[in-house]
Amino acid sequence: MTGGPGSGKGIQCEKLAQKYGFTYLSIGDLLHSDLAIRSERSKLIKDHMKHGDPVPTDIILDILKDAISSSLMTTKGFLLDSFPCEIRQAEEFECKVSLCVVFIGRFSGHQPGGGICNQGC
What we know:
Elements lengths: L8 H12 L2 E4 H11 L2 H11 L6 H15 L6 E4 L5 H10 L4 E2 L12 E2 L5
Parallel strand pairs: 1-2
Antiparallel strand pairs: 3-4
């Protein structure tokens, strides 16, 4: 789910998750939870946040992979809040985390809708 800050992404994700049995994963919540663990990864996240830099996609993908793996057997699907923001991130997600996904939303400079399913990564 993509949209600007305060646009209601989280609320809509929560409603959809409850209605259809999906797992709602907020990238912001996952990053903050990871910071509480005090691992090497959390130190990297903290450094990026401290300097106002975006957290690298590879770190976000690692966190997502962990969260998805832990809920895989108990959910009908996943709703991601605020990720991906760019087509490149969607492609990396597909190659590193998922075999086939459908993204609905607006990517930087692209129109809404459209699925990505390149299984030859």
